[in-house]
């Protein structure tokens, strides 16, 4: 059996629930702050703002991995409801290595969690997958927002309303140009 007693299981579950809440809150706050920054940095070119988004997301993930490493140290060293078999993990640096491998779902398998550490590792992998996906989605939305701010190459001043081929845009139905649908008219906008 994975757990020797019910107390160890409950302790590991409690730590896992706290860790899910803590890492989601860290990530939420990081993305909220990044979102505010990219709106306030209107003087910076879009490429730099997007790099800020990517590095800030990476920074948030780094903090979260460290928090998980501390949780492994707590579960194994203080609560004593888990341990690691295989390659010995000596101290916080070993738990940090294991946390990075688990959070990213890389899973080398050189250190194997047992007991409460096993439950924690499974939860960390799921949370890492969720938060990495959240960062990817956030980065896409930021890129979509900043994309139109990039200067277009090959366009002259007088080409403002023309498509890339020099025309006025393809006609759609009922005299609408491409990009103008029923929801794009001035009276139908939802800003």
* Largest beta sheet: strand ordering: 1-2
Unreliable parts: 166-173, 175-191
**What percent of the residues sit in helical stretches (DSSP H or I)?**
55-70%
Query: What does the largest sheet look like?
Result: 2 strands, antiparallel
Mean pLDDT: 82
End-to-end Cα distance = 57 Å
Radius of gyration: 25 Å
Oligomer state of the chains in this structure:
single chain
Tell me the structural class: mainly alpha
**What's the CATH architecture?**
Orthogonal Bundle
Shape: elongated
Strand content: 5-15%
The count of domains is: 1
Task: Summarize the topology.
Blueprint: H1 6-40, H2 46-79, E1 82-86, H3 91-103, E2 111-115, H4 116-147
Helix pairs in contact: 1-2, 1-4, 2-3, 2-4
Mind explaining what this structure looks like?
It contains four helices and two strands. The protein has 191 residues and is mainly alpha-helical. The protein has one domain: Helix Hairpins, CATH 1.10.287.70. The chain has a two-stranded antiparallel sheet with strand order 1-2. Helix 1 packs antiparallel against helix 2, helix 1 runs parallel beside helix 4 and helix 2 packs across helix 3. The longest helix has 35 residues. It is elongated, with a radius of gyration of 25 Å. The C terminus is likely disordered.
């Amino acid at each position: 059996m994975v757990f020797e007693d019910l107390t160890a299981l409950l302790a590991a579950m409690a730590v896992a629930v706290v860790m899910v809440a803590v890492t989601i809150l860290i990530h939420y706050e990081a993305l909220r702050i990044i979102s505010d920054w990219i709106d306030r940095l209107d003087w910076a070119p879009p490429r730099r703002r997007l790099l800020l988004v990517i590095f800030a997301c990476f920074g948030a993930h780094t903090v979260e991995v460290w928090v998980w490493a501390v949780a492994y140290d707590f579960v194994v060293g203080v609560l004593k409801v888990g341990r690691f078999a295989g390659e010995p993990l000596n101290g916080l640096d070993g738990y940090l290595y294991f946390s990075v491998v688990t959070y990213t779902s890389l899973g080398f398998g050189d250190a194997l969690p047992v007991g409460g550490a096993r439950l924690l590792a499974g939860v960390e992998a799921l949370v890492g997958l969720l938060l990495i996906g959240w960062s990817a989605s956030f980065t896409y939305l930021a890129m979509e927002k900043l994309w139109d701010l990039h200067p277009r190459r090959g366009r002259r001043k007088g080409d403002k309303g023309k498509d890339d081929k020099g025309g006025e845009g393809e006609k759609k139905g009922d005299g609408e140009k491409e990009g103008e649908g029923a929801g794009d008219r001035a009276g139908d906008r939802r800003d």
